[in-house]
Amino acid sequence: MTDPSHHRIGLLIRDAREHRGLTQSQLAEALQTSPGELNQIERGTGEISMELVARISEALDAQLVPPAGRAGPTHLRVVGGRRLGGAIDVRTSKNACVGLLCAALLNSGRTVLRKVARIEEVFRLLEVLNSLGVSARWINEDTDLEIHTPARLRLEDIDVEAARRTRSIIMFLGPLLHRADRFRIPYAGGCDLGTRTVHPHMNALRHFGLEVTATEGTYHAEVDREVTPARPIVLTERGDTVTENVLLAAALHDGVTVIRNASSNYMVQDLCFFLEQLGVRIEGVGTTSLTVYGRPYIEEDVDYSPSEDPVEAMSLLTAAVVTDSELTVRRVPVEFLEVELAVLEEMGLDHDRGREYRTDNGRTRLVDLTVRPSKLRAPVDKVHPMPFPGLNIDNVPFFAALAAVAQGQTLIHDWVYDNRAIYLADLNRLGARLQLLDPHRVLVEGPTRWRAAEMMCPPALRPAVVVLLGMMAAEGTSVLRNVYVINRGYEDLARRLNQVGARIEIFQDR
């Protein structure tokens, strides 16, 4: 192989292995080869076949070279140290959109979703839906999606490769338990965030007669139609996707379902708003106790606009702060960012809020925020996530970059995920001073003298964007390699940042 070169592939393998926290010996053992041979491959001096590259990619859960007929990995070249200016709009929520795509399986009528995020996570779900026989097409200059779900789904034809590349596939369980007595879906993939148990899903959906066994990378589901919820379903964790899964199951259950310890986060509320348009009555939206009055059959022509993404809003606000810029971020869903903004105000953020207005679905409150250059100081208390209305779990990583430009020490406690905090330490390669206390806690010392660097993109979405923002703050030219994970959750991010003054080049290896 000469395209890409052995040397480049070797570097990609080494970086991906180190991101997984594996030694050469551990990876060699998984590949049933010797550490010496793997060392030669990583140095670019050993023989390597496409078959071996595929095995290494599978072992590391990383796309090192593209499958035949597909474009190669996408990289970003960032010229940092530039100030941003002007205004940028927040796009619709990635997490809301994927939940709504799963919910479209409930509806035998026409579903139109407006301004759907054109991101890799959505594309993978559309590939899965199409493989099942669902008609999904982009309309209105590729901004909206029109979806028709057939009476019979081709469950045996599910696109396994696409399904394995998204964690959202787990939310097919709720709708599909009403469509078939037996079915299979692949294990969920997506970000590498450590062990994220699916047991809360299984425990909750068991109330609808669903039993799941896992063998050889596949969930095998069987449904007992005699079983229906006899009492309130108490979730063992207040998770977003498990709440959505139970809502999806309850929507087509001909009866009343009570869900307790439910998440009230933004994507759950969006799903509730959509289900209400399908004629499903839901009491308690925005609280931790939901009562769902399901329907035995749903055939509605529905037109729905997802709300804006509070995590993307936080990303853009952070971009302005770390680049010491004055930037207006428009269409910010403020009700899902109030704790984050309160912490930033305590840290000394200089900003203005415009008047509140409603998003296109008429439900979520928006504001325009203007951020100005600020001298931040470390917060008094540690930064840690809590279920809504607390500080959003996905916004915690951005405080690593914010703390890096603040005076003093900031303790960040990311208690939810097993190893996401580890990836934040990549900021050290850009000049930051992060001390990893354990897999969940990071101590950040600011301020930072940023410097440019070249590195592999972290395999977790939010830490990957944090690294990109650090590169934007660093004088000089940085390179972030294999940014598929960013494209999973952000639509056209580099181009949009360039429109407000960034200088980011998208390229692929020749």
Describe the structure.
A hairpin with a 4-residue loop joins strand 4 and strand 5. By secondary structure, this protein is α+β, with helices and mostly antiparallel strands. About 1% of the residues have low confidence. The radius of gyration is 23 Å and the shape is globular. Helix 2 crosses helix 3 and helix 10 runs parallel beside helix 11. The chain is built from 18 helices and 23 strands. The longest helix is centred in the N-terminal third of the chain and has 14 residues.
Work out the radius of gyration.
23 Å
**What's the helix count?**
18
Mean of residue pLDDT values? 90
Query: Structural class of the helices, strands and pairings?
Result: alpha+beta
Percent range for helical residues?
25-40%
Which helices and strands occur, and which strands form pairs?
Elements: H1 6-19, H2 24-31, H3 35-43, H4 50-60, E1 74-80, E2 87-89, H5 94-103, E3 110-113, H6 120-131, E4 135-139, E5 144-148, H7 160-164, H8 173-176, E6 182-186, H9 199-205, E7 210-215, E8 218-223, E9 233-234, H10 240-251, E10 256-260, H11 266-277, E11 281-283, E12 289-293, E13 302-304, H12 310-322, E14 327-332, H13 338-347, E15 350-353, E16 357-358, E17 365-372, H14 398-404, E18 408-413, H15 420-424, E19 433-438, E20 441-446, E21 454-456, H16 461-473, E22 476-481, H17 484-489, H18 493-498, E23 504-508
Parallel strand pairs: 2-14, 3-13, 9-10, 21-22
Antiparallel strand pairs: 1-22, 1-23, 3-5, 4-5, 6-8, 7-8, 10-12, 11-12, 14-17, 15-17, 16-17, 18-20, 19-20
Helix pairs in contact: 1-3, 2-3, 5-6, 5-11, 9-10, 10-11, 12-14, 12-16
